[in-house]
Amino acid sequence: MMRFFSVFMPALLISFGTAVSLGFSRFDYALILPSMMESLGWSYSEAGWLNAANAIGYLAGAAWTGRVIARFPVRTLFLGGLVLTAISVLASGLVASYPLLLLLRLTAGVFGALSFIAGSILVSGLFPHDPHRSGTAISLYTGGGGFGILVSGLFLPFLFSKYGADFWPRAWMVLGVAGLLFAWLSSLASRSPELIPQDPSDSPSWDPRFFIPALIGYFLFGVGYLIYMTYFIKWVEDNGYGPSMTAFVWGILGLSVLLSPLFWRGMLSRYPGGRSLGLSIALTSMGALIPLLSRSLPAMLLSALVFGFSFLNVPAAATAMLRTSLPRALWGQSITLFTVVFALGQIIGPALGGMISDHSGNLFSGLAFSVLALAGGAIVSLFQRQRG
Fold this sequence. Notes:
CATH architecture: Up-down Bundle
Helix content: over 70%
Strand content: under 5%
Number of helices: 15
Distance between the termini: 32 Å
Low-confidence stretches: none
Order of helices and strands: HHHHHHHHHHHHHHH
CATH topology: Growth Hormone, Chain: A
């Protein structure tokens, strides 16, 4: 075990960045959302658009990263994006205006994308001649988002129970301060000599059309998974479960994400193409389906377990596929393209899920749509061939 931590310490430290760019910035909105809806009187559509704004920022950030990735050191982009993401999260607790909250969610998305893409490139440079260890490092990096989920789940539900819905501004500020601490921890690894810097010069040409099945699958995954992550905790609370059970469910989801690399690392090294991608999305859709079939506490816990086990392996599977299919000089371009497509799906998902729920008058229909989108993404991804 000590040898494992020694070998993969750079990836583990950089994964604190994923806890900020994905966990605190995006996923933990689900924990704070019920209190914001109660305190500010929002509809499902208004709540959905706030997370869609984060996804719009993520799209803009991915496109911007594609322009600057060759001009600045990847380490600088990673750490700069991380700090600015944490500041945007912290500032979300300083305003109550809906337009200003939309703006801050958008900026958190912009800088979160910058940090996540740069971190993906850094981690992809680990173990260039060892596919098994490389797959483990990539899985550990994306799994860091689970740590952000777990940390917030340990205390936010109980703080909301004690202080009420009006605690939501302080919740954002606490996450922002934690994000700055995590950025510092990631900085300890970003200068590791084991992280090979990207060389953007002499980039060969490539044809993105080869990856159309994976791109479509990734898009549909973006649509479906973020509906679940936006409204799942609201669904749990609407079915009568209090703060302790909410914390337990959310904590199980985060813990499942953290432990998932122990399984997926072998899968990513053996099947880095469409099979790993499709299987990950299929399991994610199963996790999203379970709480619709039963509203019992075991069903909620099983949903969190299955969903958490699989959903953050989808970006890891996409990164592993690109790493083994393309030369190193193209990793930045290809990861950026996949992130743009992913972000488009994330923009559509929460807003459309909220509109469907408002139209039908219940959250069930919006969550059901997420299951259909995820199932479609799983099927399409299986048609992706492996190159290299």
